[in-house]
């Protein structure tokens, strides 16, 4: 299966991005760069351990909403 949607950086691998908010887990597919920037921003503003990235399991997930915004300067 492929991730739902198109990667803004198709040459990069997709990863599974898990976000924990108020006891609920949200899972998204994201290109590696967007996921790492998301984690960096999340750690600066919120809880350090509320986000996890995995190299496996992104195949059938929806893409991170507004993923492209994490790639713009």
At a glance:
By secondary structure, this protein is of the alpha+beta class. It contains one helix and three strands; from the N terminus they run ββαβ. The protein has one helix at residues 32-45; strands at residues 14-21, 24-31, 51-54.
Q: In which range does the helix fraction lie?
A: 10-25%
Q: Average pLDDT value?
A: 87
In total, the number of strands is 3
State the distance separating the first and last CA atoms. 31 Å
> Which regions are unreliable across 5 or more consecutive residues at pLDDT < 50?
none
If helices are DSSP runs of H or I spanning 4 or more residues, what is the number of helices? 1
Characterize the biggest β-sheet.
3 strands, antiparallel
Q: Radius of gyration from the CA trace?
A: 12 Å
Amount of beta strand: 25-35%
* Structural class estimated from helices and strands: alpha+beta
- Element order, helices and strands? EEHE
* Strand neighbour order, sheet with most strands: 2-1-3
Q: What general outline do the C-alpha atoms trace?
A: globular
Oligomeric organization of the protein chains: single chain
